[in-house]
Amino acid sequence: MLASMIAKHKVKQSFVALNNHDLQSLSADWHDDIQFMYPGALSVSGTVTGKPEVSRWFDNMMMQFPEIRFSVNHVCIENLFDMTGTNNVVAQWGVELTNKSGIKVENVGINLIKIRHRKVVEIRDFFYYPERLPIGWEE
Length: 139
Prior knowledge:
By secondary structure, the chain is α+β, with helices and mostly antiparallel strands. It has a single domain (2-137), classed as Roll (Nuclear Transport Factor 2, Chain: A), CATH 3.10.450.50. The protein has four helices and six strands; from the N terminus they run ααββαββββα. It is globular and about 45 Å long.
């Protein structure tokens, strides 16, 4: 149960790191072979593999969106009795973004986060309003 409480806390802290543009804190618990999946048909969409590449993706996001405000509404843990740091976590959130051109965009979504032996191995983004993604990315 302690491992699931730690996972829940770390997921919430990762959104604080995003809000603060703190890539070092955000990536601290990523596995070297992490996979990140971003939806849509944009230049930033698709699957990115490896800690350096995923870090670059988030660095690009932080440059595109100087103002990021995530509000985490729910964090759900699949296995409350996990003892090994291996779990699946779902975070439901809202976000307000302002891009470098001053365009404001809001969205709602979830992340599916897979953790294996206390390291994040996969993150999948899902958005309730995918049609808003090109507006923020200016594509």
